[in-house]
Amino acid sequence: MSTPNDMPPFGGDFGAFVRRAHAQGRLVVQPRMGFGDPALMREGLAAVARLPAATAGTITLDSYTRVGDYRAIEAALANGERLNGYPIVSLHPDVTLGVTLGLAGPDFQIQVRHGSPDPLDIVRAMSRVGLYATEGGPLSYCLPYGRLPVRRAVDNWRRCCEELAALRRPGAEPHLETFGGCLLGQLCPPSLLVAVSVLEALFFRRHGLRSVSLSYAQQTNHQQDLQALAALRTLARRHLSDVDWHVVLYTYMGLFPATRSGAMRLAEQSVRLAAQGGVERLIVKTAAEAHRIPTIADNTQALRAAADWFDEAGRFADGPGPMGGGDHSDGDDGDDGSDNEVLHEACALIEAVLELSDDVGRALVEAMRGGLLDVPYCLHPDNAGNSRSFIDARGRLAWSRAGAMPVRPQPDHDSPMSSAQLLAALSYVADRSAAASPYSTASRREG
Amino acid sequence: MITDNSYPRRNPTALLSSVSSDSHTWNLVYLELVLAEAGYDVHNLGPCVPDELLIENGRRYRPDLIVISSVNGHGASDGTRLIQRIRADAALAGTPVVIGGKLGTDGTAGAVERERLLLSAGFAAVFEDATDLSPFLAFAAGVHRAVSTATGRIPDEHTERYATVRR
Fold it and tell me: Strand, helix or coil at A211?
């Protein structure tokens, strides 16, 4: 593949775009869309760009690209098989330029989403076509996604950050989002999600990024999720005051309600969470996702609904909402942190990890080795595997076993889990949303 | 692994894995528990397992059953490639291998044709998009019975098996 001699067509500033929208009281909504066919990919981006809402575009890559299996892509393309995402590395830059041309601009930023513990090929392919925003992290794109040793993922992500940061020029600010707030999607207590999200953002900054976002995925309990978002903001202010940052929330990533009304209720709940938590950007989930790769219409419908719900939430939220929260300097997120359990635990985890080394990357490797970060139910060979979580009587995620992590478990709840109990825990949110949801009505009153 | 299989082998053994491109985990965590409850000692290789690694572990553990679970939509194509390699391996040529999950990118569309292709490629059974696990459980129980009878091993009762699940 040749590198074009002329400047890439567009770099943009993803973080600045989100900041502008937030200042106007708008929530940036974003899909997780990705298609193997370039024409369909362009059609999808165009449909998202056209929506009367603050939207960011997404190019989600296929899973062969994620694992670097480019031969499988060639084989699939030759056999006319459909890929589950866009193969940006395998396609000529001109093809991808054809996808983004006239769409990518100051008011429509595109993020490339993948899941690779070895993302250098991807970052290079993106930068050739002027796409400078992506997501991931040395732990969050390693632990859930395979077997690569954490030490190597840290090396890979350091190089990726450095190459991405080197693209900075007037009018182009590379942006990286941590995926640490989404580890395994469900059943991970929020304190660990917040801690890994912050640690990965520190890693990005250490290796040259000046614009980052911190992720958090909606979990099982609205109040606990609000605490997590407040903790994330407090810790970002504390640790990332010299870079541009914002918070990105993911609509529940686990098992979705099977009924349409249940799925809508859960999605609406995530929008209310975004509004009350002062979140700047929301990654939506489509109701179709549980069954198949969502279509363009599935995606635009979900985005439109999210934007509408946000306008509605903005009218009745009296806590930190679209206009009240999210200012980096005000120090007021509706929670002074004194009784925020998520914040206390996340602080303890972050401090324990940062004490291990002056180098964040080395600290992460050591923390995994010593089990100071230990993700429940994670099958990665480098994960200690001595922690377990459970959903308590209030619906909050809690630790039944903490391994070597500096958090307090509730050992009374530590018992062997049967497949039926695991399924019940994995289905907890889906079941609650499918029924007339007390979760939903309770928080509406609170809002 | 979330269960403990470090004690000497007593039960029929299952090797549980995803395909090389699939990063999903919860299906594997769940199936590990299901297979343990069905009386198997389980080796769970986790997500994104390259074909070579699966075959290497197959040679090492000589499982009585290989279970492939995939939900990312590439299961049919990855599975076809994988089963050809397993069938070509002398040590594993006779091992029953089953595949299940969401195997195409468009829901259950094309499932019948996929099943036919996967069976002819060498899978012993295909369980696509099963909201009902019972066909898979019946298959696993059949293999378990056959192995136990052939080796004269008396399968553990569930209660005993549970005692070994790591707390």
Answer: strand
Q: Can you tell me the distance from the alpha carbon of A187 to that of A183, in angstroms, rounded to the nearest whole number?
A: 9
Sketch the domain layout of chain A as residue ranges. 1-447
Report the distance separating Cα A346 and Cα A336, nearest Å: 15
Mutate to test the interface with A, among B28, B49, B74, B82 (most CBs of A within 10 A): B74
Residue B106 at interface with chain A, using a CB cutoff of 8 Å: yes
Contact B33 A422 (CB under 8 A): yes
SS3 for B142?
A: helix
Interchain proximity B23–A84, CB inside 8 Å:
no
In chain B, which residues have their Cβ closer than 8 Å to the Cβ of A142? none
For A10-63, what is each residue's pLDDT tens digit?
678 999 999 999 999 999 999 999 999 999 999 999 999 999 999 999 999 999
Q: Do A76 and B73 touch (CB under 8 A)?
A: no
CATH class of A1-447: alpha beta
Cβ–Cβ contact B7 with A under 8 A: no
Report the candidate in B40, B41, B51 with the shortest Cα–Cα distance to residue B18. B51
What percentage of chain B carries pLDDT values higher than 70? Answer: 86
**What is the number of other CB atoms lying within 10 angstroms of the CB of residue A251?**
26
Q: What structural domains does chain B harbor? A: 13-131 (3.40.50.280)
pLDDT (tens digit, 9 = 90+) per residue, A357-384?
999 999 999 999 999 999 999 999 999 9
- Residue A333: is it exposed, middle or buried by C-beta count within 10 angstroms (0-12/13-18/19+)? buried
- Contact between A378 and B25 under an 8 Å Cβ cutoff? The reply is yes
Exposure string of A393-423, with b = 16+ CB inside 10 Å and e = fewer, is eebbbbbbbbbebebebeeeeeebbbbeebb
Chain A interface, best mutation among B1, B2, B19, B20, by max A CB count within 10 A: B2
Handedness of CA A19, A20, A23, A25 (dihedral sign): negative
Helix pair angle (A93-100, A120-128), 10° resolution: 60
B17 min Cα distance to partner chain A (Å): 11
- Do strands A397-402 and A387-391 pair parallel, antiparallel, or not at all (unpaired)? antiparallel
3-state secondary structure of B84: helix
